[in-house]
Design goal:
The protein has 3 helices and 27 strands. By secondary structure, the protein is mainly beta.
Length: 400
């Protein structure tokens, strides 16, 4: 896409300067069944501000949790000064279903807004409820950011809950390292969201993102990724289902911050056929130690060792513990990216039987001295990509 110098009103997806090419993303949309016979869907409006030129816009639905490289686009023609109305755009315009992002592109200037909503299931209080979701320019994607206004009350008769999501506009899979804190800065947990496939979006509950469905009233999430992503959250009133959309704000690391010391992170292998935790985020220079706890015999084998051409092994490091029933095996990571691995006895590359992912960030470790192995340095406990409980926070079937 041609670089553009523009005045970007983030909250409304509006760019003021009439330059050559423009690309906007609605980070989350839906047509999906909810509780009590509700149907969540997304309405979109596209405006051509020109007084003398017809606008041609291409659009593409980027389904959640799948690789959308080489997807099919649709083209719209909008006369000058007119607004195109696309109700239930996912179901009626794209003929799709489920969750996903929507990408719009044009050589002319244009504006996009969206609303995802459902009819009220309460006959005594008819109407609709939902939330406005802005269209965000690709330049709004960041490698680090913060999501404010979060809450997570596990008692669904009171308080608020939040879902968080990340849209990956890039051509490679990406995992996002997240940290959730209370308003006073107390850390509530860390985790990893992803890997998010190319040109796709993933949405999870804030509790699932850190592997701990802890209740808190006011908090925030910071995140970082090796490539730029669009972060967002949906905060829902547990009593009324009133919702707000929260767009990520850029949160660059402090220039005065010191890089973390190298650390050792532990992963238990067994006693069944699982790695625990399955998803781990470490810094470059950190060491992961696998502790073998099963008489069955397992291995820790990098996918790159078995499949050097794997597009998901972006880190590309090679290791193989060999078959072990006890003891440990360690590997120090020096390459940034995704490092998927498997048990060569009970699984294979890109399978879901006995697999794990090490996400290596680009923050260099300060020195190579490792702290004492206390077992307290385990980080980034997140849901596996195919965990059936991954969307458990869509309580009572609600889609947000």
């Amino acid at each position: 896409m041609v670089n553009r110098l523009a005045v970007f009103a983030f909250a409304f997806g509006i760019v003021a300067s009439p330059l050559a090419s423009k690309e906007l993303l609605v980070p989350i949309s839906a047509v999906a069944q909810g509780a009590n016979n509700t149907l969540f869907r997304t309405d979109v409006r596209i405006f051509n501000p020109s007084e003398d030129a017809v606008l041609i816009v291409t659009a593409e639905f980027l389904a959640a949790n799948q690789n959308n490289t080489g997807g099919t686009t649709r083209t719209m023609t909008i006369p000058q000064g007119e607004m195109l109305v696309l109700n239930n755009i996912v179901g009626e315009f794209f003929g799709a279903s489920g969750l996903g992002a929507i990408r719009f592109e044009s050589e002319g200037e244009f504006n996009v807004t969206s609303r995802t909503f459902t009819d009220s299931p309460n006959a005594a209080a008819p109407g609709t409820f939902g939330q406005f979701i802005p269209a965000i320019e690709v330049s709004g994607a960041t490698e680090s950011g913060v999501l404010l206004h979060l809450a997570n009350d596990t008692n669904l008769t009171q308080g608020f809950r939040a879902n968080v999501g990340f849209m990956n506009p890039g051509a490679q899979p990406v995992s996002v390292a997240v940290t959730v804190r209370s308003a006073d800065g107390t850390q509530l947990g860390t985790g990893t969201v992803g890997p998010i496939p190319p040109r796709s979006v993933t949405q999870v509950g804030v509790g699932a993102s850190i592997g701990n469905n802890i209740s808190f009233t006011d908090g925030y999430m910071t995140f970082s990724a090796p490539t730029a992503v669009i972060g967002f959250a949906s905060v829902v009133d547990n009593r009324s289902s009133d919702q707000i959309f929260v767009a990520a704000q850029e949160n660059p690391p402090s220039e005065e911050a010191q890089p973390p010391a190298a650390k050792e992170v532990f992963v238990d292998v067994g006693p069944d056929t699982r790695f625990n935790p399955r998803n781990v985020t470490v810094n470059k220079g950190d060491t992961v130690t696998w502790r073998f706890l099963s008489a069955l015999g397992h291995t820790s084998t990098s996918d790159s060792a078995a499949d050097p051409e794997s597009p998901y092994a972006t880190g590309g490091e090679i290791w193989d513990s060999g078959t072990k029933t006890s003891g440990t095996f360690s590997h120090t990571f020096e390459s940034v990216g995704l490092q998927p691995y498997h048990c060569a006895i009970h699984s294979g590359p890109r399978s879901t039987l006995m697999n794990g992912v090490i996400t290596v960030t680009d923050i260099p470790a300060a020195g190579r001295a490792k702290p004492a192995a206390t077992g307290k340095d385990v980080s980034s406990i997140g849901p596996p990509p195919t965990d059936p409980d991954r969307h458990a926070q869509h309580e009572q079937g609600r889609i947000h």
